[in-house]
Amino acid sequence: MGKSTSVVVAGVVGLVFAAGVAVAAEKDIKVPRVPAAELAKAKEMKSPLKPTPDVLAKGKAIFEGKGTCFTCHGNSGKGDGPAGAALDPSPRDFTNPQFHTIRTEGEMFWVVKNGSPGTGMISYNPAMITDEEAWQAIAYERSLGGAK
Ligand code: HEC
Fold it and tell me: Which of 60, 77, 123, 135 could be cross-linked to 115 through a Cys-Cys bond (beta carbons 3.0 to 4.6 Å apart)?
């Protein structure tokens, strides 16, 4: 191995190491985010919208636009947005199908309205996004995990 090659290899290893240290893990998906007193009600809450192509397109526009979800959750929805890198726990990875089998859409709606206590997930009031827009964004997030 030439001198320059080993410098490059060391650089790449250094970068991978730095990324591994900087990016925090997600919080356990099995632990509900909604407080116990409100959990049953949140779990039962159903979206008024069906995930039609129109609803998913509107949800994508919210996610990537005025909702600013992408800044933390990433354009891909994997939780790798630029503003998410510094957050611990890391933003949720919506492309994980297992997450969507554990979390109901009602619980997701609760989190969008109230935030996720003790994390960087902010709460959205109706001046930021309306209830309908929140449901559209959630339909889009669920579609990233292959949910129908
Ligand atoms: C400032 C960064 C940030 C922004 C902006 C953001 N999120 Fe999050 N989000 C997070 C973090 C961090 C978590 C992980 C919280 C946790 O593990 O409890 C999260 C988690 C979630 C969860 C899952 C919570 C659970 O039950 O595990 C949902 C749903 C969610 N976000 C929806 C959205 C939507 C919809 C938007 C845009 C309208 C959005 N987020 C914008 C940081 C953000």
Answer: 123
